[in-house]
Amino acid sequence: MSKLKRTSLFSVYQDYGAKTIDFGGWEMPVRFSGIKKEHEAVRKSAGLFDVSHMGELIITGKSSFAFLQKMLTNDLSILKKGKVLYSVMCDESGGVVDDLLIYQLSQEAYLLVVNAANTTKDLEWLQKHIIGEVQIKNVSDQYALLAIQGPEAENILQKLIVHTNLKEVNPFHFNEYVNINGSFGLVSRTGYTGEDGFEIYCSPAAAIKIWNDLLEAGKEQGLLPCGLGARDTLRFEAKLPLYGQEISSTITPLEAGLGFAVKLNKKEDFIGKSALEKQREHGIPRKIVGIEMIDRGIPRQGYQVFLADEEIGVVTSGTQSPTFKKNIGLGLIKSEICNIGTELEIEIRKKRLRAKIIATPFLKRSKN
Question: Domain 55-139 has what CATH class?
């Protein structure tokens, strides 16, 4: 068995009693004080996550813009220095290679933040399709990545920030070279929880100091260290996709409800465009929908979904929602059976239990 990779913050996990798991080849904290407690902290105050396992790739060169327009489904023409864009990277069949964030550092330099387990695959896929003058470098080991999320995130982080007003950092924008109580990093405002929040990209050597400084600054507001368990329940309630569940090589971004990030009308061609155009023209065969259990049971990933005796889909994610105290899930089902209120059955432990389709996202972003 190969040894699990560890982030530069691994040594502090034990200080907070963290339980760790294998996540994409990384030994990561699944919880500190408890998933429900951490989930509630993010919804009501703030939570601090170590997400240093994420991959970072730098794309540079005169042809970098044209190259990324070819590789990604979104339209990078709306980018400018200091702006972040969410996009999907597809294969020729329209299946998802990965979903990612693009940071424009300059007109000829872009930072791609990719899913941890996909970093090597993404790098190989990009290198395979290079056009023109483009250089691709995996710089993941040069970054630690912290995320502070929740309605108090701005107030807590601002205590440590010198010379930068976080109110001026709009959603999906970033500032480079931010002074964080004597440490420096890139600070962005995106998030993966359905709440407001910030990401801090810093050197691995600076990560522990910034982590400890943030927890001290957030004591009064109840800032808690949070693991990947709460990160999953939070993103699930906001209907933010997880690679391998709501999106994959066999699920297109149109099926996953990510049409906002697929610009079929951009002038440049991109990999997967033809397949996605055909899917839209002929009708998207499956869609991700919200499911609420009527009978007692929790819908889990991989459980089959039925209408009468017909299997119509599969659960992609599901849990007992910490916010709503209900057993809910996301399911990929036939498009013609997607009306709100439609009753279905989920097969749980060889029994078919009643459920119904409900609106998503289950939770909308808090407004301050």
Answer: alpha beta
